[in-house]
Design goal:
Elements: H1 10-37, H2 45-67, E1 70-74, E2 81-85, H3 88-107, E3 110-118, E4 131-135, E5 141-144, E6 150-156, E7 163-169, E8 178-181, E9 188-192, E10 200-207, E11 218-222, E12 225-227, E13 234-239, E14 246-253, E15 256-264, E16 272-273
Parallel strand pairs: 3-9, 10-16
Antiparallel strand pairs: 1-2, 3-6, 4-5, 4-7, 7-8, 10-13, 11-12, 11-14, 14-15
Helix pairs in contact: 1-2, 2-3
């Protein structure tokens, strides 16, 4: 192959730059689709600006090399006339559009929504710690709740009024998905989280050292709750505490206390053996 055949001719340059221009155009439309479908505003305008620079350079390479551009200056001093046009103007417009888009995207295109979490309707209990998951069309977004009891998340300006799903994970509070609406005229959103409700079914028998039901009137109090007892000495009830919670247990016989201990609530049979009277 002769040295002449290795040269990048005008035709080859045009073909090379043309395919580069087509690939860059496809890439630009992909970027725009990411921006328009980004409901959480995670696609940075700065990133768009960085990507559009090489796109503009490729476009300029094709336009300058294949179509030619021109610039002409008239006059002999600073007050002369400068004409600037042709395909090169497209490059300038691309760069200007990138700057304009980046500025408007970062300053006016998004806003930060501050979501506060409370443990009661009166909003007297602000919840801190734990994390929250935001369910969107894409991958779930997980954020930690800070010491001020809120998380912040960026949304595009046109997201106001949209429905969002919030899934908080906070100790001692129910973990269920909460449907909310992004406020139209506010950057804060209050979420009420329901405290977990625990219950434990308790049951067992009461007998003395001989395995017999004590004679007389038996009264059982566990965690301050009166627990019914049948004629066979069997007790059964439901306490509003999780298993393992230690609460005071008292047993009365004919209104006289005969059993008084702090006992862990059982979710299985728990017999109460009392000393012989």
């Amino acid at each position: 192959m002769t040295p002449t055949s290795k040269r990048l001719t005008n035709y080859r340059w045009a073909i090379f730059s043309f395919f580069g221009f087509i690939a860059s155009t496809i890439g630009l439309f992909l970027i725009l689709s990411l921006v328009t479908s980004d409901t959480l505003g995670m696609f940075s305008g700065v990133l768009f600006y960085i990507i559009i620079i090489p796109f503009g350079l490729v476009a300029a390479g094709f336009l300058f090399g294949a179509l030619k551009s021109y610039a002409r200056a008239n006059g002999k001093n600073i007050h002369g006339t400068l004409e600037f046009g042709g395909p090169a103007m497209i490059f300038v417009l691309l760069m200007y559009s990138g700057i304009y888009f980046q500025n408007n995207f970062t300053e006016h295109g998004t806003f930060s929504l501050y979501i506060y979490f409370y443990g009661d309707q009166a909003k007297a209990t602000k919840l801190t710690g734990g994390e929250v998951q935001f369910i969107t069309n894409g991958s779930p977004i997980i954020k930690a709740i800070d010491n001020e009891g809120h998380v912040s998340i960026s949304y595009p300006a046109d997201a106001r009024g949209r429905k969002i799903n919030i899934d908080p994970n906070i100790d001692s509070y129910q973990k269920n998905q909460i449907a909310a609406t992004i406020p139209e005229d506010s950057d804060t959103l209050d979420v009420i989280v329901t405290k977990k409700s625990y219950t434990t079914d308790i049951y067992g028998y009461i007998y003395d050292g001989q395995g017999l039901v004590p004679k007389g009137v038996l009264t059982l109090e566990w965690a301050g709750i009166n627990v019914p007892i049948d004629a066979n000495g069997k007790y059964k009830s439901t306490l509003p505490y999780p298993p393992g919670t230690v609460k005071n247990l008292k047993l009365f016989l004919d209104n006289k206390i005969i059993y008084n201990i702090d006992q862990a609530i059982q979710d299985e049979i728990f017999d109460i053996k009392i000393p012989l009277q």
